[in-house]
Every structure is written in structure tokens, then in C-alpha cells.
Amino acid sequence: MEVQEDALQRIIATLANKNEELQNFIETLNHTLDRVQVNSTQVVSDLEEEFDTLYSILDEMKESMTNTIKQETVRKSHELQNQQTQSTNALESAEELLEFANNALHITDEGEFTKAAKQIKDRVTMAPAFRLTMKPKATDNMTHLMVDFIQERQLLQGLKFLPVPRAPEIVLEDCLVIDNEVTVTWRIPVEDSKIDHYILEYRKTNHEGLPRVKDEQCWEVVDNIKTSEYTLQGLRFDTKFMNFRVRACNKAAAGDYSDPVTLETRAFNFGFDSTSSHLNLKVEDRSVEWDPQGGKGVDTKVKGKENKGSDCQCLSDGFRSGTPSPKRTSVTRSPAPRGARDRFTGESYTVLGDTSIESGQHYWEVKPQKDCKSYSVGLAYRNLGKFDQLGKTNTTWCIHVNNWLQNSFAAKHNNKAKNLDVPVPDSIGVYCDFDRGQLSFYNAENKQLLHTFKVRFTQPVVPAFMVWCGGLTLSTGLQIPSAIRSFQKTENGLGGSNSSISPQDPSVACDICFYDKLPSVDSSLMP
Question: Class of the 350-490 domain?
């Protein structure tokens, strides 16, 4: 019966998955049909616009060339008319001189005849008829203004739709997701020398498989890619997957999209749980800041010296403490301005993460403010007491930085501390391998190992933080850096890290296994 029920459950799950795939495919078809109509209307509109532009250019060229012909006609007519006027005047002058010469033949007086003959000779020499060019200054030929449209007509008759590049193919086995970077590689099925560039589109999603038409994220675009590979850098993996598609473009048009691919981008995402924080902490999703007035009145009487380099009032009462004690500070609590935010009280300026770790490997980073006086970063069980401080119980593990009075950098657990003889980094990376029972801290910049705890976790853990006189910024959605993965593989292959506080096995032989040797640490020295 149980076997049949399990088999039926598997069949139901298979059918449900197939139904979901079919529904998504039908939505894709409907979307494609709608886009066909929209795109068809658009290309017809674009075509009409192009032809209208071509008509406009032809009309402009026609008008320009017609004006040229008219100007040439006017020029020739003007020159011929001037020449005609000059010839007419010359003819009239010649006819008058001819008549004068004929009359001179009838003069009988030799003196008068000689005088008339000399005048005729002088006038003939200066006559316009003998000074004019008997060749027209312009011809009636206008063939030099004719246009040969054979080539243009052939071009127009040969007008075709643009050649569109083939859709690229994304090479899934060459795509790489590492260190919060995604490298996408593709190829063109048929060589095309006219491809000018590529367009890559991507979007985040929590749905595995083919991209859905109705998705919560929009496609983001990377244009003008000149090679067949592109790397997206500095990503925050706040979804389980990312969809990718690419298209090729020539100088004129963009081709079809490639078949989309889905790459897995799982990472540990969490924020600060404001409901778990101390009232003096101002909490946002990924930042927390110490607020001396949070949840308290302003009537605060402080004994001791004031730390002039800080806005925080620090106390000295026969011994030094990293954080002011409520027992030595007179306050009046206002009536719960932040609701039920009293998860932690006293000196435990603590806030927990809002997501538990129950298995697997996870990584996140924490960056303190430059002037932060004291902070801790680590892990804790959910049952952390409201007065408990990180590192002072057997259910918390952390590294602690104190920049007030006595600078210190130490790993803490169960009220025992190990001073770390390395510079305090600007940003701390936290690596948790729940299944192997390992908690490691790194310099987030150069991935230098700072400290490792070996732990047998007996219940889910949550990221835990303490901050006083300053603030912390949280970076999540990070993959485990490749440098840390490589280091962990090496360490695990050699039998584990050699730098740990191991409360479960205090006899483990290593240079800092001081569990039985280390005296109890005075809580007044550990804010």
C-alpha cells in the first residue's frame, strides 16, 4: 500500500510539473502571437516611413534638378538675346552705311566724292557688323542636363528586406558561475562576417527551467558586446537562478534571440532581524547602528570620565568595561517606542540574522564603520538568552574587535578568548560549513584566514552580531569565494584546520587548543 501510494505521489508530482510546463508554454505562445501582431504593425509603419522618406528625397531631388534646368535655360536665353540685340543694331548700322555708300556713287564733284569715300572707309572700319562674332554664344543642346536613372532604378528594383543575423547558441558547458560573477559564452551556427556586435539580456528568477513570460523581474540589457563571451561582475545572488539570452546585430538589424538558458545562482541571503535586536540598535535590512537614545529617555547621569574622542560616554569604576553597564547608568525607559524589541537587554547590544542555517555551506561579509568602538561577528543558537553576550556562552562563537581603551582582536567562545595576532581587516568574511561543523573567519579583501572554530552543531544556528558605538553593514547573496573553497578543500584533505577553539575535544593537539589551560576571562574586559 505504501509503495503504491509513493508511486502515485511521484506520478502526481510529474503531472503537476508537466501541467505547469504546458501552462507556461501556452502563455509563451499567446505572448508570441500578440507580439507578432504588434511587431508586424510596427515594421509596416517603419516601411511606410522609409518609403515616405525616399519619396521626399526624390521630390527634393526633382525640384533641385528642375531648378538647375530652368537656370540653364535662363542663362542661355539671356546670352542669345543679348547677341541677337547686338546683331540687330549692327545690321541697322550696316544698312545705313550701305545706303550712304550707294548715294556717294552719284556725287560728281571730285572733292566731295573724295571726302565721302574717306568717311565711308572710316565708318566701315568701325562698323559693329565687322566686330561681332558670327557664332552663337549658347547652343540649343540641353542633353547635358539629362539624368541616367538606370543604376538607381536597378537599385530600387533590387530593394530587399535586410539580411538578419542568425540566432546565436549559448554554449551551456562553457558558461561559468563563480565568485558572484557569471560568464556567458555563445557561438554563431553559421559564420557571418557582417555581425557588428551582440546584445546580452539577463534577469533574476526563482523559477527553474525555461524563462516564464510573466516573471517578477524585467530583462536587463548589456549592449555593444564585440566578442562572443561576456562576464557580469559584482552580482548579488538574491534569487536562485538567472535567465540569459543573446542576439546578434549587424549594422542595420538585430537578429532573433538565442534559446534562453537558466543558470543556478543560489547563495545565502538574510538580513538583520529587527525583532531580535537590543533596543539601542537601529536596525535596517542589511545595516545596524548603535543608537544611545534608542528606547530610552535622555536623562542619563554618568559617573567617571568622558571619552572625548567619541559620542559615547564610557565609564570607569575601579575597572574598565568595553560597554557602559545599565547598573552604572541612570535611565528612564520610554514606553516601548519600538514595539516588542526587548529580545536582548543589558550590555548585550546584539542582533540576530533572520534566517537559520540547518545544513550546507554559506558565506557572508560584514563591514564595520571606521569609528566603530566595539563589535562582534559570529554564530549563535536561537535560544540565546536576553542577557547573553556573544562569545560568553557555549552556544555562541564569534570574533570580537575592541577599539576602545584597550585595542584587541580575539576569537571568543564559552567566555574564553584567543587573541588573534593579525591586523583587523576592513571587512570580515564569515564561512559556515554546518555539516562539517566548521566556522571560519577571513579577511574579506585578501581571503586571509583569521580563525576557525570546530563545532558539533546540535541545532540550527543563526548569524549573530554585536555592535557598540558604531555600526555594521551586511553583504549577503554571496557565493563562497573560490579562494576559500580551494583553501577548505586543502584543509579538509589534511584533516581540518589547525586554528580552532574546540570545546567538544579540548585535548586535540594544535598550537591554540588551550581550552583546559586558558583561565576564565573577566567579563569586564569584554564588552
Answer: mainly beta
